[in-house]
Design brief:
The chain has 151 residues and is an alpha/beta fold. 26% of the residues lie in helices and 27% in strands. The strands form 2 sheets. A 6-stranded mixed β-sheet has the order 2-1-3-4-8-7, sandwiched between helices. Strands 5-6 form a two-stranded antiparallel sheet. It is globular and about 40 Å long.
Length: 151
């Protein structure tokens, strides 16, 4: 499938620039690229005028970011690494992750929700879907406990 920029030039193959713009990401937004395929995404973002883009290898302390972009979370461990980095996002921060619809027997959208994200959009792909998810307030990540269970 040809992207808006031609075959292979868009790391998500789905019009990344248009997706970022619709999600409210500015050229001055702080974007952290993580995981497999990160270098290609970083180069694409820099070539298209995004000014504050960083590439993070592995899991570790992260600089504050407004957006976490993960071009490929291919298995459960990779998704967990991405979610660990996403935990540093402030409320309202955006995560874009391309992953299989189900990883480790759990739907990816459900895993994102349990990790404190609200899935705004899912763009189906051939093998992996693209999820756009916003970080909810810190309290939203905690599962509610019923009164009967607490008694």
């Amino acid at each position: 499938m040809l992207s808006e920029l031609g075959e292979g030039s868009d790391p998500f193959g789905s019009g990344l620039g248009a997706l970022l713009q619709r999600a409210g990401v500015l050229k001055t937004s702080v974007i952290q690229v993580v995981g497999e395929g990160g270098l290609q995404a970083l180069l694409w973002l820099c070539r298209h005028g995004y000014e504050q883009v960083g590439l993070l290898h592995g899991v570790g302390p992260a600089e504050p970011a407004e957006v976490v972009l993960a071009p490929c979370a291919g298995d459960a461990a990779a998704l967990e690494d991405v979610l660990a980095q996403g935990a540093h996002l402030p409320s309202g921060g955006l995560m874009l992750v391309r992953a299989r619809p189900s990883i480790g027997g759990e739907p990816t959208a459900e895993r994102l929700r349990r990790s404190g994200f609200s899935v705004e959009r899912r763009v189906p792909g051939r093998h992996r879907d693209l999820y756009l998810a916003r970080r909810c307030g810190r309290s939203a990540a905690i599962e509610p406990v019923s009164v009967a269970a607490a008694a």
